[in-house]
């Protein structure tokens, strides 16, 4: 069993490809003193990501790294890791980062990289998780915060939060209600790590009580 982190104020990097509402929620949790962390850098693979503007408006260092400027994923991730190491971050937070993570990034941040997925994993991994849940006819879906491993949404689970699926839900209405829970759940998982309460034993996460 390994402790992910001794209790400390965490330095975070956010990786985001889009609108950045999970970034907003994590930022709000920090400024309202619920989350003992600081966001040291936001990096996006998309030049026009709204998340980049949101970071700049908050005087958070914001950087676009274009994967197309590199020969392959290894090259791109080597640059990403260089920036993350220069910033000396403790945790890498994927927040709507729409790219599969390769071995270069994984090896550098094993057990130190988190993702949020809009379904109760292991159900409905991958794209359009909310549509998958509606189409399948489950009564509950929700969100999952997990460590990132080499699979697609397969890493050890830290927290989950359930959301009922209503009879007349479509992908958008369900996504909207799940998003509310995402915003409540992501910072709590990060705070558990900041409190030194999170331990991993192969694929299982244990959270110290109290
Ligand atoms: C969220 O639904 C998250 O679960 C998924 O991508 C979406 C990102 O939304 N991984 P935002 O960019 O944080 O608003």
List the helices and strands and how they pair.
Elements: E1 2-3, E2 10-15, H1 21-31, E3 37-44, H2 50-57, E4 62-64, H3 73-87, E5 91-94, H4 103-108, E6 113-117, H5 129-136, E7 140-147, E8 157-164, H6 171-194, E9 198-201, E10 204-207
Bound molecules: 5-O-phosphono-beta-D-ribofuranosylamine (GRF).
**Distinct ligands, ions and cofactors found in the model:** 5-O-phosphono-beta-D-ribofuranosylamine
Number of strands: 10
Helicity range: 25-40%
Number of discrete helical segments: 6
H/E element string? EEHEHEHEHEHEEHEE
Name the beta content range.
Answer: 15-25%
Lateral strand order in the biggest sheet: 4-3-2-5-6-7-8
How would a crystallographer describe the biggest sheet? 7 strands, mixed
Q: Which term fits the overall shape? A: globular
List keywords for this structure.
three-stranded antiparallel sheet; alpha/beta; 210 residues; seven-stranded mixed sheet; binds 5-O-phosphono-beta-D-ribofuranosylamine
């Amino acid at each position: 069993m390994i402790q992910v982190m001794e209790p400390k104020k965490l330095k975070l990097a956010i990786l985001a490809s889009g609108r950045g509402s999970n970034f907003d929620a994590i930022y709000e949790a920090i400024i309202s003193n619920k989350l003992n962390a600081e966001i040291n850098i936001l990096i996006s693979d998309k030049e026009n990501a709204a998340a980049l503007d949101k970071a700049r408006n908050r005087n958070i260092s914001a950087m676009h790294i274009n994967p197309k400027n590199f020969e392959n994923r290894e090259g791109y991730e080597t640059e990403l890791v260089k920036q993350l190491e220069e910033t000396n971050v403790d945790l890498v937070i994927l927040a709507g980062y729409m790219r599969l993570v390769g071995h270069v990034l994984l090896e550098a941040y094993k057990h130190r990289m988190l993702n949020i997925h809009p379904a109760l994993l292991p159900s409905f991994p991958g794209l359009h998780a909310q549509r998958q849940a509606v189409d399948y006819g489950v009564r509950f879906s929700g969100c999952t915060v997990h460590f990132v491993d080499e699979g697609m949404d397969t890493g050890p689970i830290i927290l989950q939060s359930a959301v009922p699926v209503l009879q007349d839900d479509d992908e958008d209405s369900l996504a909207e209600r799940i998003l509310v829970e995402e915003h409540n759940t992501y910072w709590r998982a990060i705070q558990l790590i900041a409190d030194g309460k999170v331990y991993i034993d192969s694929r299982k996460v244990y959270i110290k009580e109290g």
